[in-house]
Amino acid sequence: MEFKIGLLGFGKVGSGVYKIVTSRKQHIKQKTGFYPEIKKILVKHPDKPRNVNGIDEILTTDANEILCDSEISAIIEVMGGIDPAYDYVKKALISKKHVITANKELIAKYGDELRKMAEENGVFLKFEASVAGAIPVIHQIERLKITDEINFVGGIINGTTNYILTQIIEKGMKYDEALAAAQKRGYAEKQSGLRYKRIRCSV
Asked: Is the pLDDT of residue 133 over 70?
């Protein structure tokens, strides 16, 4: 059974997701019964040189082509930041599309609201990739909650934060300098004033 996916964002993380999904289609089908296909990818700059071939036809700058497509059952959000990711994820959940996100800021600020919205619409909101470099700690905590009571989990388990603190402590960098270095390497999201097109479909 074919399972169509919309990918929001195509930076370092997004291109990695694309390569994994496309290279492991048969394996995923054998394990789940679903054959994944990334149908559309939302980008800011479609003409930007990329190290992935054969994707020009599925690139779009219009989020509506993904969020309003009834064939797309799941959204993978790897844009980073709140605006416009928050609106896009909400629209996807209301449209009864499953959502997978690697967006730390989004989950930290709106995780409870989005989880409730997913539950109300009978879809999944998966955010394992937003924690500890996608180490499956959330899955284990969810399982442990069945028999154990967890009141608090503490520690720095974020790769971006670890990188920045290492530069500050070991190399004497200032915070802004360390953040810029992390952004240059693709470890931290780059914030910009560029906006995607507004959502205009109805559900």
From this structure: no
Same domain assignment for residues 28 and 84: yes
Q: Rounded CA gap, 199 and 197, in Å?
A: 7
Q: CA-based angle 132:135:138, to the nearest 5?
A: 85
C-alpha to C-alpha distances, 136 to 20, 100, 193, nearest whole angstrom: 17, 14, 33
Q: Domain count of the chain?
A: 2
Tokens (6 digits) for 102: 């690697």
- Co-location of 16 and 78 in the same domain: yes
User: Which domain covers residue 57, as residue numbers?
Assistant: 2-138
Q: Which residues are 74's β-sheet partners?
A: 5, 98
User: What are the tokens at 185?
Assistant: 């390497």
Condensed to tens digits (0 to 9), the pLDDT of residues 135-179 reads: 677 777 777 777 888 777 776 667 788 899 999 999 999 999 999
Bridge partners, 59 (sequence order): 41
